[in-house]
Amino acid sequence: MGGSDEQLTPPPDQGGEAASGTTRSEIHGTGRQGGIRSWRRWTVISIVGVLAVVVGGVAVVAWRLSSNIKRVDVSDAIGSDRPGQAPEAKGALNILLIGSDTREGAGNDGYGDNDGQAGAHSDTNLLVHLSADRSAATVVSIPRDSMVAAPPECSTDAPKDEWVLRQWNLNYSMGGTGCLIRTLEGNTGLFVDHYAVVDFRGFKQMVDALGGVEVCTDEAISDPNTHLELTAGRHTLDGRVALQYVRARKSIGDGSDLGRIVRQQAFLSSVMQEATSTELLLKPTRLYGFLDAATKSLTTDPDFGVGTMRDVATSVKGIGLDEIEFVTVPNETYPADPNRVQWKPAADDIWTALKQDRRVNEPTSSASPSPTQSSPLTVAPGEVAVQVVNASGTSGLADQARDALAVQGFDDVTTSDAEKDGDGTVIAHSAGNQEAARTVAAAFPGSTVEEVDGLGSRVRVTLGPGAKPVVAVPNRLGSTPVPTPSIDPTTTIETRTADVDICS
Length: 504
What we know:
Elements: H1 2-7, H2 24-28, H3 33-49, H4 62-66, E1 70-71, H5 75-78, E2 93-100, E3 122-130, E4 137-141, E5 147-150, E6 164-167, H6 170-188, E7 194-198, H7 200-209, E8 213-217, E9 221-223, E10 228-230, E11 233-237, H8 239-247, H9 257-277, H10 284-296, E12 298-300, H11 306-315, E13 324-328, E14 331-334, E15 337-343, H12 347-355, E16 385-390, H13 397-406, E17 412-417, E18 425-429, H14 434-441, E19 448-451, E20 458-463, E21 495-497
Parallel strand pairs: 1-12, 2-7, 4-13, 16-17, 16-20, 18-19
Antiparallel strand pairs: 2-3, 3-4, 5-6, 7-12, 8-11, 9-10, 13-21, 14-15, 18-20
Helix pairs in contact: 3-9, 7-8, 7-10
């Protein structure tokens, strides 16, 4: 990318476009047809990831852009008992992007109320996961009204069993970014590598630097809180109106934050589509204006400087719009307050997927699959004692498996429930009992078999999230059909990719 780096310089103080004689080859370097494609992909990930990743590709102006960024070390506020990174996710990055509703600073006032609560709040919360091989990005929207366990008074050492239930966006107002990250890590088991906070002013300036962003609404909007007036249909919005649009809530749809999240995800998709389909990247002055806007209202951790952003930007240059996936944490109404939500058990499927560095809804690959049945089973179902443990988070799954085993001659099956854990089905047996375990594993396709201590003659089956229903074993007893599963332990979480049309 050397050609483009050398040509991009800060605009003169008087502003203005690049010289009219500037050509494509002058901007990107002679013979570098791949440069434009790479630049566009860099811009895509910058907006999805932390709005500033694209800064990494501009070495010549890095010194000036770097001085725009405010850096705050919040490690002391996070505490020392942080989760580790799973081996299979080594090299992946988790970046927390926070949209603050602060009214402090020029250009941040006049955008509706903050529900009567003093201080800044994290109205927009996006956890961006960049896969280890940089082939995909997952952007998780966390509802601001989520009721979750949180450290009391944002304590950095209170054990998890002493945490209190608190609304998500109050963590930011009480203890800043550090408290928010501690709460996120404590509820998901994910390690947050970097964070970035952007305020109202930065959002507006970035949209204006793009020349406006197109949105689509199927209903007219008249919102007294944000002062937004918009007819139904497609519109290209400037920065100020775009901010009104993504913040509007009470007068649109059901008036919830969940509806607003859907609009915000569609808006981000539109921003990416705009950045990759215009001549922004072919005009040094406009590109610099976008980068300048993206950094002036940005606060990050000390390690997330322009150098790190450049490294990340280089590594993700191959990600396309169809490989950027938006998802909202599955939730339901919080029983004690209909204006709040609580996370559904399916939320754990998202955190598990990210810890395993795979896309949401992508099936896992078993590292130790059940033995193939290339040789006949030597232990009959009636000779095996089985314990089925339901660790899937789906009620009734163990009983369903017991009934499906019973019709095949497994007449000694006990059941129990456990905390949601693992993924898929794990068959455990003691030393010397592997043949009995083979018989049981034949009933659970895709299961993992392991040898453990202390089970005696009993074979333990642990059903985790995504466990598949019982099938007939080759040496089954009786002829009664295996019952059709009434409970599906797998959960398909709704997602949206960045290439989807904004009116979808």
